[in-house]
Specification:
alpha+beta, nine-stranded mixed β-sheet, about 575 residues, seven-stranded antiparallel β-sheet, single chain, about 25% helix
């Protein structure tokens, strides 16, 4: 199988993680056990790119120790079927190891490697071969005296010196480590490899003590090994390809010790209690309080960012608060918050921490909310939102050129995130568009954006138009005039949207929720507090009985006040 297609504008990259997930599922089915948090077969089916022939290996490890590795150097007519066969053989038929048990399966790391065609190496001696080997890049096949053995490129991690690598491979083939029999032949190949990792247990609060915990490193998910030895992060469309010691554009996802890690796990840049309307979320537990926190870094580079001191920071020292997942959940309950909000910077780049906090919150009966740009790839998108209850997604622009110019990203992945949230999950979703004079405030773009929401997502999805204020690298752009916001709201309502709001300015009408049945106010707001609410706990209008879409709860009625969280979390 040749090199995999690279990411091209408008052409998604193959999701090889589905092959690794399929390999784990194949082993689970043979054991007669279910996978934790299992999902439907269609979602985890291999990408169509992998329908043809291909050579593959399946490697099983537990706590870094090899538990099985089986594959084929020759392409199988069906790559997917080859992976299934190799998964079963690695789990149950590798003579070097005991068969995998159902108790082991949740702790296994399952890696699928896709091989390039073999390339013969002309070598008259061992020294000749050693000169031609590329550490961390080449897999090697050695044939001598009727015996054949191979090492995948991943073996370079434990045997980084070429002489040691070759000596160990000769021993694997049953040859003396110093021998070079006449007629010895060699081939090299490269691989791309994906892992399906077990969920790592969240650290306890006691683990976040001492100065060394400031940059706490945690095993990251969603990455794979490229043919040139770099590791590609698969969280967002940037697809950062990293060598040892490098970090991605988001800063927090880094390569350490031959794998991807999340830096700063369990640390935040600050915590405070906010009204939920500040996120902004107007149809999710209105009037309630949310414990808000964030980190540093971002996978976009918006020129207008108002949290640039965090999103563009490259200083883990800003993560001063200790915040184990269970500590955050306990603090939210103690402070009377109905939800925890991941905000201030892009939460998706810390998806492992976000997932663990969300799980701890749900154990305490606390909801979870994300304020996100939605700039994600498919597998990471599913992972991020799997445990969340609500999200506000920034739909920054509706022109691809502007998206690239101002954010360094692109529009389509954000649209894909919104479609997934609205049609593929139960996550309550609202949208925010910051109107920037001269960039996205034309009537044509506002109409196009509003019509897309109405047609693709539905007229009940709330849309917030917010006022721009000069900041970061756009200090020369004037603030958004209030009349621009009001005109945008009118255009969106003309497009059929039922719930359109205005933010960052005082506008009572633009802050009010109207009943879609009788068009009368059902929630009136002053700033971030509620003046009155004429909805029952199920979201029915008390005048006409029409249902207002959202998540409502009687205990959430009331005025939320801003307050700082009292002291560090333990």
């Amino acid at each position: 199988m040749g090199p995999l297609p690279s990411l091209r504008p408008g052409s998604p990259e193959p999701d090889g993680s589905r092959l690794a997930r399929m390999a784990r599922r194949t082993i689970a089915e043979a054991l007669g056990c279910a996978l934790p948090c299992d999902s439907d077969d269609a979602r985890d089916a291999p990408d169509a790119t992998f329908d043809g022939p291909g050579a593959s290996f399946v490697t099983l490890t537990q706590d870094g120790e090899l538990q099985g590795c089986v594959g084929g150097l020759a392409p199988h007519p069906s790559l997917a079927e080859g992976v299934r066969r190799h998964a079963l053989a690695a789990a149950f038929d590798d003579p070097r190891f005991e068969a995998i048990t159902s108790e082991q399966l949740p702790r296994l790391s399952v890696e699928v490697s896709l091989l390039s065609p073999l390339r013969p190496v002309a070598c008259a001696s061992e020294a000749d071969l050693l000169q031609r080997l590329r550490p961390e890049v080449d897999g090697l096949v050695l044939e001598a005296q009727g015996r054949t053995a191979t090492f995948l490129p991943q073996v370079w991690e434990s045997l980084p010196a070429p002489a040691d690598f070759l000596a160990a491979l000769k021993r694997k083939a049953g040859l003396a480590s110093r021998a070079w029999p006449a007629g010895t032949r060699a081939w090299t190949y490269t691989t791309e490899a994906w892992r399906d990792e077990p969920r790592t247990a969240p650290p306890r609060a006691a683990d976040f003590t001492g100065p060394e915990a400031a940059g706490f490193l945690f095993p990251a998910r969603h990455w794979h090994r490229l043919a040139d030895g770099r590791l590609r992060c698969d969280v967002c469309p940037h697809g950062c390809a990293l060598r040892e010691g490098q970090h991605g554009r988001c800063f927090l996802r880094q390569r350490k010790g031959g794998r991807l890690v999340l830096a700063g796990y369990g640390r935040t840049s600050g915590l405070c209690v906010d009204p939920i309307e500040k996120k902004p979320l107007h149809h999710f537990l209105p009037g309630s309080k949310a414990l808000s926190f964030g980190a540093v870094g971002c996978n976009l580079s918006c020129r207008n960012c108002q949290n640039w001191h965090l999103s563009r920071s490259r200083d883990l020292g800003r993560l001063h608060e200790r915040a184990a997942p269970e500590s955050i959940a306990t603090a939210a309950r103690r402070l009377g918050c109905l939800s925890v909000a991941f905000t201030y910077n892009e939460p998706a780049i810390s998806l492992e921490f976000v997932s663990d906090v969300a799980e701890a919150c749900h154990a305490e009966g606390i909801a979870t909310v994300a304020v996100t740009a939605g700039y994600l790839r498919d597998a990471a998108r599913r992972d991020v939102f799997e445990r969340l209850d609500a999200a506000n997604v920034d739909l920054k622009f509706f022109r691809e050129a502007t998206y690239r110019q101002v954010t360094g990203g692109s529009l389509q992945p954000v649209l894909d995130t919104l479609r997934y949230l609205v049609h593929g999950t139960d996550v309550w979703t609202e949208i925010t568009t910051l109107l920037i004079p001269g960039l996205n405030d034309s009537e044509a773009e506002i109409r196009q954006l509003s019509e897309w929401i109405a047609d693709d997502l539905g007229v009940e999805v709330p849309l917030h138009f917010s006022a721009f204020h000069p900041d970061h690298r756009m200090l020369d752009v004037p603030p958004t005039p209030p009349d621009t916001l009001r005109r945008a709201r009118a255009l969106a309502r003309e497009a059929g949207l039922k719930h359109v709001y205005i933010g960052n300015i005082h506008d009572p009408e633009g802050a009010t929720t109207y009943c879609p049945g009788c068009d009368q106010p059902v929630i009136r707001r002053a700033g971030f507090g509620l003046l009155d609410r004429l909805l029952d706990a199920e979201g029915r209008c008390e005048r006409c009985g029409a249902h207002v879409s959202g998540r409502f709860d009687a205990s959430a009625v009331g005025s939320a006040r801003f307050a700082s969280a009292p002291g560090p979390l333990r």
